[in-house]
Design a protein that fits this description.
Layout (H helix, E strand, L loop, with lengths): L6 H9 L14 H11 L11 E6 L2 H8 L7 H6 L2 E8 L6 H4 L6 H5 L3 H25 L3 E5 L4 H8 L4 E10 L15 H4 L4
Antiparallel strand pairs: 1-2, 2-4, 3-4
Helix pairs in contact: 1-7, 2-7
Length: 196
């Protein structure tokens, strides 16, 4: 059985999409980022908790503050990408649950009263949303360069607070010259699927 999504869309989102390492200087607008979010916000999370939070780093001063927390190999591309987003998990997401889960508002206190439970749930579900975000960037015709090579404590202190945990930093823009590394191999269906 074939997929319902046409081949061009499959290629745009998955087969031809790559992690970009260089970008053109074409700007990424707030309207583009809002359109991306307005699409990917519909991706599922447990209890509709939606814990992903974004910090868009646009200013030269903000970029300079961020670059110093990036791993050495990630600094040049982060310094030159048209837009950089810090993706973080909101460990206090439960405060939004009465509005996000109106048919079950007691879930906030029933399941998420304890901070360690919230941190675990926020990390997993914000990571799901981060993956949706990367696909959304691709759907907008842009390239994403997600990175986890950075000083997490430094980024948290510089841009977030104790209630938000950084998950990744994503460079966003139109791919530049020599943007791609060679495609790495993938595991086959038979290597990852077990039927019981």
């Amino acid at each position: 059985m074939s997929l319902v999504l046409d081949l061009a869309a499959q290629d745009l989102l998955f087969r031809e999409a790559r992690t970009a390492n260089t970008f053109t200087d074409e700007p990424v607008t707030d309207e583009q980022v809002e359109a991306i979010y307005d699409l990917v916000k519909f991706g599922p999370t447990a209890f509709n908790q939606s814990p992903l939070r974004l910090v868009l780093v646009r200013s030269a001063e903000g970029r300079e503050r961020l670059v110093r927390h990036m791993a050495e190999g990630n600094r040049p591309k982060t310094a030159t990408a048209p837009l950089v987003a810090i993706l973080a998990a909101d460990n206090e997401f439960h405060e939004e649950l009465p509005a996000l889960l109106p048919h079950f508002p007691q879930a906030r206190d029933m399941f998420f009263a304890e901070r360690p439970v919230r941190e675990s749930a926020a990390g997993l579900n914000a990571a799901l949303q981060a993956a949706y975000f990367i696909i959304g960037v691709r759907a907008a015709g842009l390239a994403a360069g997600p990175m986890t090579g950075y000083d997490a404590a430094g980024i948290q202190k510089e841009f977030l607070d104790g209630d938000h945990t950084p998950l990744m930093v994503v460079n966003i823009g139109k791919p530049g010259e020599d943007a791609w590394f060679p495609r790495s191999p993938r595991l086959s269906y038979d290597e990852v699927v077990t039927t019981v």
